[in-house]
Specification:
The complex is a heterodimer of chains A (306) and B (370). Chain A is built from 13 helices and two strands, in the order H-H-H-H-E-H-E-H-H-H-H-H-H-H-H. Chain A has 306 residues and is mainly alpha-helical. In chain A, helix 6 crosses helix 7 and helix 10 crosses helix 11. Chain B is globular, with a radius of gyration of 23 Å. The chains are: A mainly alpha (306), B mainly alpha (370). At the A-B interface, helix 4, helix 10, helix 12 and helix 13 of A face helix 5, helix 6, helix 11 and helix 13 of B.
Amino acid sequence: MDDLGLWIIPLAILGGAIRVSTPFLFVSLGEALTERSGRINLGLEGTLGFGAMSGYALAYLTGSPWLGVLAAAICGAMFGLLHGVICSLPKVNDIAVGIAMMILGMGLAFYFGKPFVQPVAPDLPSIPFGWWSDIPQVRAALEVNVLFLIGAVLAVALWWMFRATRIGLIIRVVGDSTDAARAMGLRPNVIRACATAVGGAFAGVGGAYLSLYYPGSWNEGISSGQGLMAVALVIFARWNPLACFGAALLFGGAGALGPTLQSVGISEGYYLFFAAPYVLTLGVLIATSSPTRAMTGAPGELSITK
Amino acid sequence: MSLSDATSPAIDKRLTAPQWALVARRAEAVFIPLGALLAGFAVFSLFLLLQGKSPSDFFALVYRAGFGTAFSWQNTLSRTAPLLLAALCVALPARLGLVIIGGEGAIVLGGVGAGFAGVVLSGMTSIIALPLMLLTAMAIGALWIGAVGALRHFRGVNETIASLLMAYIAIALMNHLVEGPLRDPASLNKPSTAPLDDALRVGNIPGWDVHWGLAFGVICCVLAWVLIDKTTWGFAARIAGGNVRAAQVQGLPVGKLILGFTALGGAFAGLAGFFEVAAVHGSANASLAGGYGYTGILIAFLARHNPLAIIPVAILLAGFEASSGLVQRRMDLPDATVLVLQGFVFMAILISETLYGRFKIFAPERWSAT
């Protein structure tokens, strides 16, 4: 049974969905946390890029990809903290700050990343779930990387945290009503800054995945809007971490469409297929937005849904 | 409002004269952004110092390559043209309260439209063909960004995310068209549309080495300023930008304003695309995605979305970009250096928003209170 025929397409899309969805998963979980606390961080695109660069650099310099992931998380947290602190100043527009962080993050990533384009850093490990098959395509498709599994666990953990723990409740209160939070004696700006920092850390890890697993190298084109799509993804998933997991798989599948069709030999409309994730994101955004009704489940303090 | 407060003898009466009040209030809008610009430069200088590079060398090189000689001025001014129009694409909707950052998409597709129109119209006299190409580019740009405005008004879609997604889609579309259906078979190394006839190229302003796009850009900035500052639509837009509910209660046509302003911003960006194709490259290809749209975002915010202020700010930033090649070679810095500088300046400008209204010197109404 060596020739799979057309089955190769859904198989490749499944494998691709798992592979391509991991950065979406991490960034969207981080952004879900940030937005639940009432702040929107559009700068995750820059954080993603910087995480990719710093993860790759540290992995190359120390020989361990996991130290790279840790470094990426720390850098991401610092970017998130910067965003959180600046946005807590009165009258500062958090959407504009996000755009500025995007530019700054990408700029710093390209600036420091110049010497790391050529060297090869060790990759992250993966678990071969396709060991039972003889067909190389099946094996390749079911090669699941460890970060995907960690991300899945994180999604469940975040869901449970929001649902059943005290800290989840605190974040939700801060996100729904600043006044209620203050009345409870909480400090909304501090909590939001912390949530943004953790969100940034997640995004940094997502970036490290890009450079340390798939596509597996550092260059200036490594990130192309994933951070932004993750923000739209969170809205689509109604700020629910489990739904973020599902939506990330969906977006991953869309992102895998281009390379899959190319590998089968369909190269007409190459660029159009690569535009598929953006079109999907836009479609999702249109379908889930409404001019009159507030979105169900939207944190009350989020500036774009007020 | 009287400033002659006889119960405060400590106040020097000369300083409370009405003309100082006017200067003081206007000064806030100049000094705070200027201060933020300098603060951004300062942070960048620190950044350079921490790596052992000299900030004074950097700024000296920027001056030399951007503003020092007539040649460098021409280089700077050539780059200013698309930046002016790209910044307008951000600034106009911003007065309405919309943050639109996808001007790059309108530039790219406007350029493709102009290139395509030029091929279709080749052989025609330039008096008919050039305006048609220009209008095609502006129309495509207007449709692209107007669509973002429509999505915002009719479906409540966040315009920042939508416009950036549309920009990515536009670049993909441009690549597809330029390498596929609209490709000139003779362009092997670099896929492009067929080169425009000489008659359909836009030339330089007489006496200068800068193409007409600069003049059009400046005129558009002035027109935009007149629109916002001096017309009823502009006034309505500023009200809607400040408080949408109040505008709706007053009966202002918020929907039409949103569609009109986004379409106009998109038309300006499309115009930039037209000049990039007709004056600079001669055909539509991947060089259209030159990042002008993104620099335009910074220019608009630095100019606080005032179309007249966009002119000097765009010249300043064009100077930095013009000098980046020289700076990289001389100081051995990566080309992302200008991006880092822009990031620092942008952050400084946004942080400075918090300073408005804090300084007593700019608030004449509080001068009499000691």
